[in-house]
What does this fold into?
Amino acid sequence: MYIKSNYMLYLFILPAVTLVLIFNYLPMYGVLIAFKDYSVRDGILGSDWVGFEHFRSFLSSPNFLKIFMNTIKLSVYDLLIGFPIPVILALMLNQIRRASVKKNIQLIIYAPHFISTVVIAGMLYIFLSPAGPLNALITPITGNPILFMSRPEYFRTIFIASGIWQGAGFSSIVYVAALSNVDPQLHDAATIDGASLLQRIWHIDFQVLKPIMAVLFILAIGGIMGVGFEKAYLLQTDMNIPTSEIIDTYVYKRGLLAGDWSFGAAVGLFNTVIGLVLLVITNTVVKKLNGETLF
It folds into this structure.
């Protein structure tokens, strides 16, 4: 009866549901090649079933631990360092009272988000090259230029710092929007009661952001294994592979470049399952600690 009386609402969401089914669920059928010795000639159904052979091959390979740890370290460092910065930016922007100044600052910090990853990688190669502007400042002090893009120990710092510069401003939008709903009278009352600026931020603004932070943190944990193939691959060189080789780049090389479709699909599926498990665990922990939950 409810559906019949509100059929127009269901018709509105029908195109979106159809697109999700076609582009998100139907392709899941292809995950079968992770359990088969896939051959383009024989197709998915005609290829020989090998079960978990490709998973065992990946887990027992000498490169597994290094690639897995590279992915985890890059993701965890990026999360620990990068997650609080949009919150801090939003809290700082909320303290700016002049609308024109606030809009100009927002424009500046949002702009890097719209620069493509390829352009970002090109800028990094130029700025950090031996003849680049950064080495022009360092060389007179050290006597020799630093090969930032070739030294493995610099890769994670470059990757994380450039990601924060590119995405922190845009990620703060949701927090800025939440803070715009805070009643100014709460701050006025707290000021009259003698609360300092930091006390007002902690007891009023931060409390408003906590539920949003909890949800976004859960989502970030769910995508922790998806470091970002494009930038990792573009910044990868023969010299920094010990720290830049992650699961996504490994899947691309083995699955597409080497034509080992089944092995690449198995590694990708392994990556996805790990992300799903982390998502469920984090959702459960956050629900117990904070009461906020994603599902």
The longest strand covers residues 36-39.
